[in-house]
Each structure stands twice: as structure tokens, then as C-alpha cells.
Design brief:
427 residues; alpha/beta; D-Maltodextrin-Binding Protein, domain 2; 20 helices; 44% helix
């Protein structure tokens, strides 16, 4: 399980200088290599723009290498992305480089479809990437993924709606479960007919977003080493009941379901608080939103979830060394800064993490880094695509009152255990 602190994210400026100098020296000579690289990346406009500029910088050294970029918005979750990537390999049409996230790291690396990147991971050029992220990007002792940006889930809130309701902002960005629930009630508004016109909170509808509600209660849906179900822990049911009651007892949230992201309702002022990562910052700026962030509410701990991305090189890549050179540019400080400012993840490189343009908004942006001492990785076993579907299927059913929480956690536990048994049998 990944645990990361600001200290191990921040490394020496000497390492930065060495890495920067190495990159500059490499940029002086042009290569005569020719060919095409297929790059499969993920994200939205921020990532696509920054990746496009990274490709332009790469082409100053490799002018005869055409990079064909495909972007996946991951609109249906990482489980489906794993299925898509494996389908490409099975069809004999994989990309040369894949950008992916921790949710898929074990699921893809366990299929032995990527080459080791130990030479990159141990080079001076990558010395300022957080060691804990680099470690989490390895599989069975070999570096498989070079980390890019990271996100932790925070409570994003509309300060104008707090002000209008006369509700104080969370002090120092912290609150308890009970305090949060009370605030959500106060921020829920109904019209004369009793119809909700403004919800206090959106109970999440995605796997990554719901994890802090378990972590902050000292539990998780899987055991600590991601080898089996933890759904029968009473604290799991307690966390689910808390979210259920925000919906059905308080009326402070719509029922989560598979469907459109309710982020647009947040930006429209129809929902006062949502659980999201740094990637929504640019939309908040674009919409002129008076938004801030707070640490997810605490019951037993202040833990939240962290996830991050990385690039891997396919075993089928015809030009693996040139593919590595592109990975180096895709994970550079320049690329990470541009992605973060544009609304992507926060940088994994020390040389990019303190950029003032990144820290200027939201007002409590420093809280992103403050949480790093108490984060846990989103549970991401090799059978993630099955685990995610099982957990979310029962989660949405429990939140919609289609199955009781007692029955839902038991049935989810049984299905998860069967999935892990199949994984173990497959070796």
C-alpha cells in the first residue's frame, strides 16, 4: 500500500539541477531515427495540451519520429480501461507507450506486456520524482511505470453558498463526520413545494471518490495488502450507512448512480460540496467560481486517498529506446507544471511541485500537500477491473435502497472473495 509524505516528495535542488542539465545536453543533438510511435494517454484538455507540447519538444531532437496520440477520458472507469488495453494486445494492435493510473498498474503489469524501465527510474534525470511514487510504479522489483501527476480526493466547496447560508468554512480545512453532515443539511435548500433546489453534498458515484469515507473511518473495502475482501468489517457498513443517511434521512444529496458526472451541477451552484481531486481546479477558474478545498471529514483519522499516473513502454514497441526518450519528455517538469496549471494532477517532481501558479488557487491549495502525510493508495489489485465493478455495483444498490447494507456488504464480500480465488488460481 502506498503511503507518501511531503518530505519524500521534496528532494534536493542539486538533483534537480543535474536532471535539468542532463535534459538540456540531450536536446542539443538531433537524431536521424525515423518512424512512428503510438502513444495512448488519458485525461482531458489539460493533459492533451501539455502532452502535445511535450511531443513538440521531443520532436526537436527526433524530428523524423511521428507521434500519433490517442486520448481516453476514462469516462467509464479504470476497469474498462484495463479491458480495452488488454483487448488491443490480444488483437495484435497495441500502442508503443501507455499512460495509465495506479488502478491499472498491477492488472496490466501482471500480464507481462511492458518492458522494465529501471534504467530511466535510476537515472539522475528522474532523481527528483518522489521515491514512494517510483516504488509504487514498480512490479515484482522492476520499475514498470514512470510517475506523472497525482491526485488526492478533497472536499471541494462553493464559498459563496457557504457565505449565503451563514455557514463557517471548515477551520484549518478540517472537520468531523458529524460537523460535515450538519453543514450539508444547512446547505440543502428546498422550494415551497419541497423540491430540492440546492443539495449540500453529492454522495460520490465513483470508486476513487468514495475511498476517503472508508479510510477516515480506519477501514477499507479490501484488506491491507489487497489480497482479499474486507467488506465484513463493521466499519465498512458504518461508513456506508453514514452516506446512506445523508441521502435518505437528511435529503442532503441525490442518489448516486452510474451516469453523468454531477460536477456540472456543482459549477452551476446546485450542489455546495463534492468529493474530487485537483483536476477540477481549471473548471472552477473558467467558471469564475469562488471555490476552496478542505480535507475529507474525519471519524478516526484524517486519511484520504491518493492516485497517480505513469507511463509504460510496450514489449511490442519497435523502437523502445526512442519510446523511453518520449516518456522522459512526457514526465518532465515542464509537462507536469503545464498539466497542473491547466487543471490536471499535481506534480510528482519536486522541481515542479512548488510552482507559484499551481499553488495560487484554490485559497487553501497547501492542503493538497498537507494531506500527503496521511494518504493511502486507492486499492488496486491485479483483478482491479472485477473488484471495481463488484464494489460499485453493490455500493450504488445500497445507496439507492435496492439492497440493505447488511445484505449488500455480505454479497459483495462473497463475490470479491470468489474473484480473488480465481486470481490466485491463475497464478
Amino acid at each position: 500500500m502506498l503511503t507518501i509524505s511531503r518530505r519524500n516528495l521534496m528532494l534536493s535542488t542539486a538533483a534537480i539541477a543535474a536532471g535539468t542539465a542532463l535534459g538540456l545536453r540531450g536536446a542539443l543533438a538531433q537524431s536521424d531515427e525515423a518512424g512512428t510511435l503510438q502513444l495512448a494517454a488519458f485525461g482531458g484538455d489539460a493533459e492533451a495540451t501539455a502532452i502535445g507540447h511535450a511531443i513538440e519538444r521531443f520532436n526537436t531532437k527526433y524530428p523524423n519520429i511521428k507521434v500519433e496520440l490517442s486520448m481516453d477520458p476514462i469516462s467509464s472507469g479504470w476497469g474498462d480501461y484495463v479491458t480495452k488495453v488488454l483487448g488491443q494486445f490480444n488483437a495484435g494492435a497495441p500502442a508503443d507507450i501507455y499512460g495509465t493510473a495506479i488502478e491499472s498498474f498491477q492488472a496490466l503489469a501482471s500480464r507481462d506486456i511492458f518492458i522494465p524501465l529501471d534504467d530511466l527510474a535510476k537515472s539522475e534525470e528522474f532523481a527528483d520524482i518522489a521515491p514512494s511514487l517510483m516504488e509504487q510504479g514498480s512490479y515484482k522489483g522492476k520499475s514498470t511505470y514512470i510517475p506523472i501527476g497525482w491526485n488526492n480526493i478533497m472536499i471541494n466547496y462553493n464559498r459563496d453558498l457557504f457565505d449565503k447560508a451563514g455557514v463557517a468554512y471548515p477551520k484549518d480545512g478540517k472537520w468531523t463526520w458529524d460537523e460535515f453532515r450538519d453543514v450539508a443539511k444547512k446547505l440543502t435548500i428546498k422550494d415551497a413545494s419541497g423540491t430540492v433546489t440546492q443539495y449540500g453534498y453529492e454522495v460520490p458515484n465513483q470508486n476513487f471518490f468514495i475511498q476517503p469515507w472508508f479510510f477516515s473511518n480506519g477501514t477499507g473495502v479490501l484488506n491491507a495488502d489487497w489480497t482479499g475482501s474486507n467488506m465484513l468489517d463493521p466499519k465498512v457498513a458504518e461508513s456506508l450507512q453514514f452516506l446512506h443517511d445523508i441521502i435518505h434521512v437528511d435529503g442532503s444529496s441525490p442518489i448516486p448512480a452510474s451516469g453523468p458526472d454531477l460536477g456540472n451541477q456543482f459549477f452551476a451552484g446546485q450542489i455546495a460540496m463534492i468529493s474530487r481531486g485537483h483536476w477540477i481546479v481549471q473548471n472552477a477558474k473558467t467558471n469564475g467560481m469562488n471555490m476552496d478545498v478542505a480535507i475529507p471529514p474525519s471519524k478516526e483519522t484524517n486519511s484520504t486517498v491518493i492516485g497517480f499516473g505513469g507511463y509504460a513502454v510496450s514489449k511490442t514497441a519497435a523502437k523502445p529506446e526512442i519510446a523511453k526518450a518520449l516518456v522522459a519528455e512526457l514526465t518532465s517538469a515542464a509537462t507536469q507544471i503545464e498539466e497542473a496549471i491547466g487543471g490536471g494532477g499535481l506534480p510528482s517532481r519536486q522541481s515542479a511541485s512548488t510552482n507559484p501558479d499551481i499553488m495560487a488557487f484554490p485559497p487553501s491549495a497547501a492542503l493538497y500537500y498537507e494531506t500527503l502525510a496521511d494518504t493511502k493508495a486507492v486499492p488496486s489489485p491485479a483483478n482491479f477491473q472485477e473488484v471495481e465493478k463488484i464494489v460499485m455495483r453493490y455500493y450504488t444498490s445500497m445507496m439507492a435502497d435496492e439492497v440493505s447494507i447488511a445484505d449488500g456488504v455480505k454479497q459483495a464480500h462473497d463475490e470479491l472473495e470468489a474473484s480473488f480465488a480465481r486470481l490466485k488460481a491463475a497464478g
